[in-house]
Amino acid sequence: MQDDTATLTKRIAAMSIGVALAVLAIKSVAYQVTGSVALFSDAMESIVNVVAGAVALWAVTVSYKPADSEHHFGHTKAEYFSAVVEGVLIVVAALVILHEAWQAFQMPRTLETPILGMMINAIATVINFGWGWFLIRRGSTYRSPALAADGRHMMADVFTSVGVLAGLSVATWTGWAILDPLMAALVALNILREGYKVVLSSLSGLMDQAIDPAEEAQVRDLISANAAGAIEVHDLKTRLAGRAMFIEFHLVVPGGMSVATAHEICDRIEDVLQEAFSGVRISIHVEPEEEAKQVGVPVL
Questions:
Q1: Are 262 and 253 in contact (CB under 8 A)?
Q2: Transmembrane region positions (predicted)?
Q3: What gap in Å lies between CA 162 and CA 2, rounded to an integer?
Q4: Which CATH number is 126's domain given?
Q5: CA nearest neighbour of 216 among 137, 262, 280, 152
Q6: Of 12, 79, 190, 287, which one has the greatest count of Cβ atoms within 10 A?
């Protein structure tokens, strides 16, 4: 099952590069047809998608490497580096767009065949929407930060494109050429905001962020319902490393309980957690009853 997921994730990451290249080509044609700096900004964001897709493929490939003598917990955090690189690229693209927008603001350009250019760009927007939605869904299913970040950026690209098309429509209708660089500047600011969110999310993962509160509540409920025979569970800690989830806690049992019986309780808890969460890794520290703290997860 793990091998199947790895193959599918890598295949999707590779396909994402192809989609990004196709969208970039379409948007470049739209820019060439119109000479619009706003459409240029949209095409620049697609260049980021191409590079980010290549980095995501590398990260996904590395993340599925098994643990070795130097990386005892595997390589799952590699995907966070992909998202950080994507965030940096987004910032660079935004600065390039702002520079181009400033030049166009100083010397407004008359748009050539704007209607045709907008129609071409709309095709790329539809492709981005479909693929971005797909990446986000698969990123969530496979617990892949790289795919999810790529999908979120594509969806941000969709909103950017819609804004650009709306602005150009108004510019074409009113004849106000100044709206073109103004839309490009707004696109750049939106890209900067998205880049900040991508980097922040990735850094949280690199800092061993705890799992989602709803998932942690589910973990507590499963432990509580399957720890019969134990006295209490305390010091529950969780963290995420890419698609891998780590859970550790202390299990307090009666002092006279045999090691074999305590081990059975641990096995029972591990089984239900592994059934509920894909890629979970569990560490349980068994303690005698004098170590009870009367806090933590109640045992039913």
A1: yes
A2: 12-31, 37-60, 80-102, 114-136, 156-179
A3: 38
A4: 1.20.1510.10
A5: 280
A6: 79
